[in-house]
Amino acid sequence: MQLVKTGAFVRAARAAKVAVAAARFPAPAFVQSRWQSSQAQTQDAPDEQAFPEQSVDVSREVDPAKTAAASSKHGRHSELEKKLQESGPENKIIHDTEGSGAKILGTPYIFDETSNLSGSILSLVGRNLYEHPDHPISITRKLIESCFEEPTFKHFAMNNPVVTVTENFDTLGFPKDHPGRSRTDTYYVNSTHLLRTHTSAHEHSAFTWLNNNPSSKGYTICADVYRRDSIDRSHFPVFHQMEGARVWAPNADRAALIESDCNNMPKTSLQVEDQATDFSTDANPFQPEHEHNHEEVHLVARHLKLSLEQVIDRIFQASQASLPSAARSSFGPMRARWIEAYFPFTSPSFELEVAWSGEWLELLGCGVTQQAILERAGLKNHIGWAWGVGIERFAMLLFGIPDIRLFWSTDPRFLKQFTRGKITKFEPFSKYPACYKDIAFWINATPSASSPIGATTSSTSGVAAAAGGDATKASLTETQPAAFHENDIMEVLRDVAGSLVEDVKLVDEFVHPTSGRKSLCYRINYRSLERTLTNEEVNGLHEEVARRMKGLFGVELR
Ligand code: PHE
Predict the structure, then answer these.
(1) Where is this region: Disordered (predicted)?
(2) Is the pLDDT of residue 370 over 70?
(3) Nearest protein CA to atom 10 of ligand 1, as residue
């Protein structure tokens, strides 16, 4: 299945290949690893919460609360807004004669033609798994944070995933036609707000915070992020990321300072190959327009790479320590390599890969922060680096968790296996039977719904998903079924069957020689992680999927 439509932007956070790799981790063991001691420093919630209030958050030109209020000034949505306000504490979507809207973490939003939220996604907003100390997501977060010590680094968690389009894309230099902006890839609350697709959405606020708190030189951010995507054992529409950044203030001896910071970095046991050291070509360039001192850029890149090698080493050590001693020696040193990458908000940029089960497994993305981003946050003439990682990818490797859906499980058989500060291998409690069902259909030849926002003026194409979480109801503005995009069937499946779908594969595709019409066949694997599904139940779900595909996308079932 084609996953990578948005290049490095998407790839850095993907958990692909991990399920296979995780299966290679040997038997469970119990360990108290050396990073546990740093827990006390980073665990305090009040500090983590301080960031949104303390920072002068100038990127929030459109404040969620203000937007909601502004929409009511038009008068059109006042009733709907009132209904949302009074609708109780849970996240929810409401449709009425005035239009549709959602309440997300207490704030009402009015939908427009860009909205494509679903109820199933909203039900996951606010779980804050990274704040449950005994959850593998939180344990992994703490392990990563322990590599970036306070007070040099400040550790933040960002609970509210609703950000502006400006914060998520514009401020970071994403081109207007970047595929990551597409409604088939991103969950839009409306045309000004979305569910963040990466932690980089908070870079501007975090750098602004650093500018106001110069005793800190860097930060990490932990948050849940959202992407419309295919369904398999290593992809879930919500996952967790961590972002880190470090800056150096202007100083006559800055190069020497950065160099000494590099030299103070502890040695690791990794075997590293660096294929990304040339910044003189267009492939991965210096930032000439800002007159970056080339010697400094090389040093910042070196510091960045050494810092992240620490993270990988610490994770590898923690994972090793969790294995029986006989299994440890067979591993040998961990091999890693740096390769060139592209992100709109860093240059030069890099990705780190590790050798895993005979393949190179991509672990993270990073680079030297675009000077314009630092300057806009008030960090004049500073220089610095930033990185972003997907937590699930690390956690699946560390704990040997084979299916990304497990992180969301509330089953005590899962949750009881983990304890803060400890890496323990997951013991599967049961494997319930899979149930495969095919759905085959002819699709319309109308333009694809994947067109990036702004790239199309059609108000009907792709609107079906804007019916929001309740896909049985199309958007009020919709006059004809939308064209089909692969992520749309994924969304329908999530809405109808939630985490009862293990994976979805395109098993057949052909174009009719005379009519030119295209036929697709998807194979859906329905399997619960927690119980055996009945035939009746699966048939019911599958029929509902077919019904919605027909109603929303005008497909002709075969
Ligand atoms: N935000 C990027 C992603 O989600 C990762 C990244 C963060 C890259 C910071 C560079 C710097 O893929």
Answers:
(1) 36-96
(2) yes
(3) 366
